[in-house]
Every structure is written in structure tokens, then in C-alpha cells.
Amino acid sequence: MADDRTQKDRPSLSRQLLPAVHGVLARPLSSYYLLIASCALLLLIGLTMVFSATSVKAFAENGNAFTEISSQAVYALLGLVAFWICQRLPAVTLRVLGRVLLVVALILLALLAAITVLHSAEVIKKPAIGPIKANLNWLYFGPVSMQPGELAKLGMVLWGADVIARKGPALGHWRELAMPLFPVIGLLFVLVGYNDLGTMLVLLALIVGLLWAAGVRLRVFGALGVLGLAGVGLLIAAASRGAGSGTAGADNYRWRRMTAFLQPLEDCETTTSAGQYCYQLVQGRSAIFEGGWFGVGLGKSALKWGWVPEAGNDFIFAIVAEELGVIGCTVVLALLSVLAYTGFRIARRVGDPFRRLAATAITTWLVAQAVINMGGVVKLLPITGLPLPFISAGGTALVVTMAAIGMLASFARAEPDAARALNARPTPRWVRLVWAPLPPVPPPRRPGQARPSAQKKDSGNRAPAGTGRRRS
Length: 472
Fold this sequence. Notes:
Elements: H1 2-9, H2 13-17, H3 19-25, H4 30-62, H5 67-88, H6 91-120, E1 128-129, E2 132-135, E3 138-141, E4 144-146, H7 148-167, H8 174-178, H9 181-195, H10 197-214, H11 218-238, H12 253-259, H13 265-268, H14 273-276, H15 279-291, H16 316-349, H17 353-377, H18 395-413, H19 416-424, H20 429-434, E5 457-458, E6 461-462
Antiparallel strand pairs: 1-2, 2-3, 3-4, 5-6
Helix pairs in contact: 4-5, 4-16, 4-18, 5-18, 6-7, 6-9, 7-9, 7-10, 7-17, 7-18, 9-10, 9-11, 10-11, 10-17, 15-16, 16-17, 17-18
InterPro entries: FtsW/RodA
Subcellular location: Membrane
Protein name: Probable peptidoglycan glycosyltransferase FtsW
């Protein structure tokens, strides 16, 4: 008996080896500071790499090497404004904002699909209706461009978390999932996937994260996986009929891109239809090989001179590997890992079901998108045209990502221990006006009551995150 007590009282090996790390993580606001630090460093690396990857091409085309980085810096400033606004919004406002964003995204996606369909059917000569132009997954309103699919991600996070949190324990019944969640998801998949299969896959991962955090039964994930695979198959087949940028009767570009990573590298050197779709992979692998352990040096990439397609966007991770080497890639991966850990930590510790679900969905979205992007660059996953969060060039994607991080920061401040700490030593009024208001103080825990993150285990089934119960 004494030996058992000794074993229980003895600290774990990780606590013995990393006492400083455990001390930092035990602080009330550790989630908030980890989130801010990791995202700030990723944004700084992203701005640096965008300038390095695009300066040569911008100078050759416009005579100004700062064209692309100037645009990206403006979007970064807009993203910081979005971060500041979303950090200040209460959960009630975020629930309303989710419905508005989802409706706006659906309207814009329908407009984008309509213009594309009319142009494919040769009803209109150009993919434009008045001042509104369409190009793949982009809409142009005069000089302003945006990606409706990015708004759809954020709208789905907030609206889906609100719907699931309101349903509560009733979510265990299939009919509660059927209305209104699944019809809206199906419509969103069709509108997004028609032009952008990669964004649809991220939406699928996001929704899986939502349902997992809600404690939905495992059989629902099986049904969702079958429907998702069937939908991907239909959208790939639709490319031969002219869907997206496909051409009726031409080679199915979606199928070629999805299977290009399975082609041997020697076939990618050819000019055949099978080889031209994995040209990006060859150049990306060449950039990684040239970088080695320590890279060729920042700004000294030779392959960004037009050899690596989309060097500043989809394949910017290849430029990171060439210029900063394995060390630079490891730093990026470490920062993304810290972001993932912090996001799921916030979801585990926050008490409100809506915040818990939204935090899980945001983290799943960013992690899935990063994995798909980097997996495509290193030839482990298909190329889907997704940007690397914080690192790739892109306006709408960066602004929406920063807004999502602002919401995560708000949730981190709402953790019970963090809220008590902030209210125990309140900051000056001008700081709260400039930065963020104080979160509400949660009710004190009763003696012996576990933290909100503590989850009960019942017969091997994972307990729900405050909504339903999952059973196999």
C-alpha cells in the first residue's frame, strides 16, 4: 500500500525532465501567450518568404521587386485588424456573425458557380457579369478580389458550433443531424467543390472535427466518409463535363492532379499528359534537395526564377526548404505544432460548449490545410492548390485566418483560470479599450470538482464535449 502511494506521489518523467515547460504551461494565460507567439512568428516568416519567393518575378514583370510583398503587407495589416475585432467579440455576437457569414458565403459561391457554368455553356463569352468577374475560386468586384470559400470556412465554424451547441444531448439522434446540418453541408460541398476541390476537403476535415468534439457516434463518421468519397468522385468526374476549369471532352485535369503524386519521378520528366501534371512535384523536390540541412541562404533560391510554379503560394514550402533547409522547415513545423497543441488545449480547457466546438473546428481546419499543403509539396499527398496558413501569399486566406486566430485568442482569455487571473489584477481602462475587454468571471469550482477539461470515461466510450455521447 505504501509503495502504491509512493508511485502515485512521484512526479512523472516528463515533469522531472522538463520542469520549466510544465511551470510555463501551468500559468493561467499560457494558452493565450503560446497562441500569440506562434502565430506572430509564423506571420513574420510568411512575410519574409513571400518577399523572397516573389521579388525576382515581380521585378522581371513590373520593374518593382516590392509589388507582391506590399500587397501581402496590406493584407497582413487587415488581418491584424480582423484579429483585434474578433478578439473583442463576445460569444453571442460570434453566433450571429456565423449565420451572416455563412449566408454571404453561400450567395457568393452560387454567383461564382453560376458565372462559371454560363461561361462553360458559352452563354456568355467571358466569365463575367458586368463588373463581377470569376476565375476558378476567385471573384473580382472591380479592383477588389476575394475567395468565397475562405468565408465559407469561418462561417461553417461559427454556424456549425452554434447549431451543435444548441442541440445539446439531442444530437445523438440521427434526425437532429439531418436538419439543418447535413443539407447545408451538402449544399456547401457542391458549391465549393465545383470550383475548388481542395477547399472542400478542408471543409470536410473541419466538419469532422466539429462532430468529433461534439461526441457524435462513430457510425456517423463512417456514413460521412462514404458520402464524402462519393462526392469527391462525382466532382472529379464532373471536371470532364466542364466543371471548374475543366473542358468538356478534354483530359480530366482533376483526376490527373489527384493521382500525379503516385507517378514515378521519371515519368514526370516527360511531356505526356501524365507527366505534365506532376511537373510541380519534380521542381518542388529539386528545391528541397538543393536546400540540404541549412539551405542555400535567404533570397538565394535559384529555382524561384520561374522553375517552381506558384513559388509564392501553393509551393512556398519548397522555397522555405531550399533557402532555409531542413532547419527552417523544422522551425515552421514546430510553430505549426505549437499552434495545433494550443488550439486543442483551449478547446479542452474552456467551459462554454460553443467556444469548445469552435476552437476545435478552427484548429482542425488550420492543421488539415497545413498538412495537405506540405504533403503535396513533398509528394506524399495530392496537389490541391491550398495555401500554407500564414506562410503563403494570399489576401482573403490571410485575413480570414487572422480573424479565426482572434477568436481563438478570445476563447483562451475565457478559460476559467485565465478569466479569474485577468479579473484579479485588472488592466487599466485604456489598455482594455485598445486591446480586449475583460472576460466574465466563471463561477468558482466547488471543492473536489474537476476542471472543465476533465472527461469521464464510461465503458471505454469517449465522453462528449458537453453535447452528445459517442458510442461505437
